[in-house]
Description:
Layout: H1 12-26, E1 34-38, H2 43-55, E2 63-70, H3 77-90, E3 95-99, H4 102-107, H5 114-133, E4 137-139, H6 144-156, E5 169-172, E6 175-178, H7 186-196, H8 212-227, H9 231-260, E7 261-263, E8 268-272, H10 273-276, H11 281-296, H12 304-313, E9 321-324, E10 328-332, E11 336-341
Parallel strand pairs: 1-2, 1-4, 2-3, 4-6
Antiparallel strand pairs: 5-6, 7-8, 8-11, 9-10, 10-11
Helix pairs in contact: 6-8, 6-9, 9-11, 11-12
Amino acid sequence: MTSADLKTPFSDRRFCSDLFLFIQRQKLLPAGSRVLLAVSGGLDSMLLLDFFRRFGKQKYGLDWGVAHLDHGLRPGSGADAAWLAEFCRAAEIPFWQARLEVAKHHAKSPQSSLEAVARDLRYDWLLSLAIEQGFNCLATAHTASDQAEGMLMRLVRGSLAGLGGMAPLQSRAGICLIRPLLSQTRPSLEAYAAFQQLIWREDPSNAELDFFRNRLRHQILPLLRQENARLDQHWSEHALLWQDEQTWLEQLTAEAASASLKQESGHVLLLDLRLFQGYAQALQRRLVKTALTQLLGEWKVFTSRHLEAVCQLADADTGKSLNLPRQVRVSRRKHALAFEQETTVSEAAPETPA
């Protein structure tokens, strides 16, 4: 349901049917699951809580509880946590809470944004709690509107991976991370909340324009929605299509890597150029990324510029080489590219092969 759909009177039955169908298609709530809800106390998460109160046990046969993390970033956060604790106590809902001084953790990680540090700490705590308490699922209240914000935020920052957005279902630390509200927009949730007379707590920091996400939410996306009232819904649907296509491409890449990537000896990884040069450029880039990731155990130190430099090396003369970050050297052999992490090679920017 989108803001365009809300021109007609709100229908609780239609809203719930849409959610039931999305949950069924994405296989989010198998019968007998134990689900921990991440609840901040805001509108979205209180709606998620209300949905589980109505249907968690009755329709899905679930055992569920609520978890709340106080980030300690604003004076009223403690009162919000206390309010939610009392709400769950009165409703006889199992409840867990913790408080972390996120600002202190951020001071130790200046290279990351405050939002990123808070997100990582939140997931670490929620997943640890889920494992400790025997839950096999963690549910968050992310919506189609959140999806649109995140996709635009990553795209503005130059990440094509952002086109995939958040997945409705993924695995983290052996726990199923589910997002049952990912097909619903903010206006549809507001209509539901009004119909059901829900209560929630507003986080005033959501209106502060110091945060990049808030600037997109309050200044940029409203302009885009004037051009397309169904933007959130369309982007959410496109994200699912993108995720499916990425899964397929990952399968193709894995098959190509199995055929063309071989461990020579020690820390040398060989990429067979006779196979590599027959692949499409998109698959070549993916194979180079796979090789570098296998060699180093991570990808984040490399960029698209490094990918292109290695692909150019594949067409260079035998004997050419280039240096990449983390003391990685890539050498052009007669029929292979050799990837090696050396301890004697100084870190340098990639050289364009002659």
